[in-house]
Amino acid sequence: MPWLIASSNRTGFTGKDLHKNGTPQIPKIGGIGCFAGLAAALTISGLLNLDYRLLFAIFLSATLAVLAGLIDDLFTLRKVALVALTFLISLPIIAFHAGSSRIYIPFGPQDLGSLFWVLVPFAFAFLMNGVNIYAGFNGLEAGLGLVSSFSLAACAVIYGSLESAFSLFALAGALLALLKWNSFPAKVFIGGSGTFLIGAVLASSIIAGSIKIVGIIALFPYLVNFILRAFDRFNWSVGETLPDGTVISRKLSALWAVFMHKSSTNEQRIVNRCIAVQIVFGLVAVIFAYYHVTFIIPRLGT
After folding, report:
1. Best CA proximity match to 57, nearest among 157, 110, 124
2. Residue 124: which residues within 8 A CB-CB, separation 6 or more?
3. Among 57, 106, 182, 220, fewest CB within 10 Å belongs to which?
């Protein structure tokens, strides 16, 4: 990571830290470091007795996501083009038919058939863009991604979806390593390549594994943030930084705005509260997965 940071500074591949005095330029190459760690882990998975087809589909989607994020960081794509790219990133999962079209709802499994694969691009578009717009503070994207991927990995283990579990644990490990440089005060930003990577791995792992319902539970805060951003017409905002360094939001334009709406607070506290909310939903997902596998599925005989 230090080498990537130095290279990014030399080439001017940086972004402004809007919550610091003087808005210093920070390298936005953290996603590349995360991808390197994820790729190394998925390569090692070849030594394990796992379904390489599922892992390869997840890896291809992750690779396309990083490339799309880099393109956006370099050229600042229009919103329509960005959404179109996220649809395309789902193609490896669809082409390999990675996963099952069955959804385990509390009252029994339902097979959506072809409709499921039609909905897959929409799941990718939502999660990748959902992660991308739940951002703007040091350590927020990586911290939320770490909690989400770890809790869903635990759910995947409970359900026996080992390929998804491995991919999610690999992502969690990469994000944990990144936080050394990305947490407050950030020395590197995760960038579009990182947010798209998180969204793609979450989406592909949920679809490839039997963790679709718990995926909705664990990632519910992203949905709430998406709705709040939609009401604000997806206008980019990270609040207003006051002279004393604290941040305030005049309107509820994102989930993080709830913690500083008309009342200023510091950046670290905002991030910690957002992560705390994510931990709660992650724990609820794990508890649901355990209860579902232990009590509901045996009763239904599925």
Report:
1. 124
2. 61, 86, 87, 89, 90, 93, 199, 200, 203, 204
3. 106
Cα–Cα distance for residue pair 114/300, rounded to 1 Å:
24
User: Which residue from 108, 293, 121 is spatially nearest to 207, judged by alpha carbons?
Assistant: 121
* Strand ranges (E), 20-86: 25-27
The mean per-residue pLDDT over the stretch 180-205 comes to 97
Number of domains in the chain: 1
Does residue 287 belong to any structural domain of this protein?
Answer: no
pLDDT category at 3 given cuts 50, 70, 90 is confident
Asked if residue 249 belongs to a domain, the reply is no
Rounded to the nearest 10 degrees, the angle between the axes of helix 52-75 and helix 162-182 is 30
Assess whether pLDDT exceeds 90 at residue 4.
Answer: no
Q: What percent of the chain has pLDDT over 70?
A: 98
Summarize the confidence of residues 236-248 as an average pLDDT. 90
Range of the domain at 102: 2-215
